[in-house]
C-alpha cells in the first residue's frame, strides 16, 4: 500500500512539473513573437548631434521635438550632444522625425543605429539566463 501511494505521488508531481514546463514554453513562445505596433506601442530613438550644444540649444530642440506629431517624451543631453526621444510608431517614424530635424533646425545630426553586433550583445545577463536559453531553443525548434 505504501509503495503504491509513493508511485502515485511521484507520478502526480512529475505530471504537474511537466505541465508547468509546457505552460512556460507556450508562454515564452507567445510573448516573444513579433507583434505589429498598436496604439500603446512606443519606440525609442536617438540622434547624435555633430556639434556642441548649449542649454539653450537643448531647450530649443526639446521644444521643437515636442511639437512634432507622435512624440511622447524627449531628453536632450547638452554635455554629450545626444537627443533621445520616444514616439508612437503608428503616428510617425524615426526616419521622418530625423529628416525634419535636419531640414528645420540648424543642427547637424544623424540617427544612431546600433550595429548587429551591438544588438546581440545588448544585455550580457540575457544571453546567459535560463529564460534566454529556453527562448533560443524554442526559436530554433519552431
Quick structural overview:
The chain has 142 residues and is α+β, with helices and mostly antiparallel strands.
SSE diagram, text form:
Layout: H1 2-32, E1 43-49, H2 55-67, E2 71-77, E3 82-87, H3 94-104, E4 109-111, H4 116-120, H5 130-141
Antiparallel strand pairs: 1-3, 1-4, 2-3
Helix pairs in contact: 1-5
Derived from helix and strand composition plus strand pairing, the structural class reads: alpha+beta
Spatial arrangement of strands, main beta sheet: 2-3-1-4
Beta-strand content estimate: 15-25%
Stretches where pLDDT falls below 50 for ≥5 residues?
none
The end-to-end distance, rounded to whole angstroms, is 44 Å
**Major sheet:** 4 strands, antiparallel
Shape: elongated
The average pLDDT score comes to: 87
Number of strands: 4
Number of helices: 5
Order of SSEs = HEHEEHEHH
> Into which percent range does the helicity of residues fall?
40-55%
The radius of gyration is 24 Å
Fold and architecture overview:
This protein is α+β, with helices and mostly antiparallel strands and 142 residues long. It is built from 5 helices and 4 strands. The chain has a 4-stranded antiparallel β-sheet with strand order 2-3-1-4, with helices on one face. A hairpin with a 4-residue loop joins β2 and β3. α1 crosses α5 (130-141).
Key descriptive features of the protein:
single chain; 142 residues; alpha+beta; four-stranded antiparallel β-sheet
Amino acid at each position: 500500500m505504501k509503495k503504491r501511494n509513493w508511485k502515485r505521488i511521484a507520478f502526480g508531481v512529475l505530471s504537474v512539473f511537466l505541465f508547468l514546463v509546457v505552460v512556460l514554453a507556450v508562454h515564452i513562445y507567445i510573448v516573444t513573437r513579433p507583434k505589429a505596433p498598436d496604439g500603446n506601442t512606443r519606440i525609442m530613438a536617438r540622434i547624435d548631434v555633430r556639434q556642441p550644444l548649449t542649454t539653450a540649444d537643448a531647450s530649443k530642440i526639446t521644444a521643437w521635438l515636442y511639437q512634432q506629431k507622435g512624440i511622447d517624451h524627449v531628453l536632450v543631453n547638452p554635455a554629450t550632444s545626444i537627443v533621445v526621444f520616444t514616439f508612437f510608431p503608428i503616428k510617425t517614424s524615426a526616419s521622418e522625425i530625423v529628416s525634419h530635424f535636419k531640414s528645420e533646425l540648424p543642427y547637424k545630426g544623424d540617427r544612431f543605429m546600433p550595429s548587429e553586433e551591438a544588438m546581440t550583445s545588448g544585455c550580457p545577463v540575457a544571453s546567459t539566463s535560463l529564460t534566454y536559453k529556453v527562448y533560443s531553443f524554442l526559436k530554433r525548434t519552431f
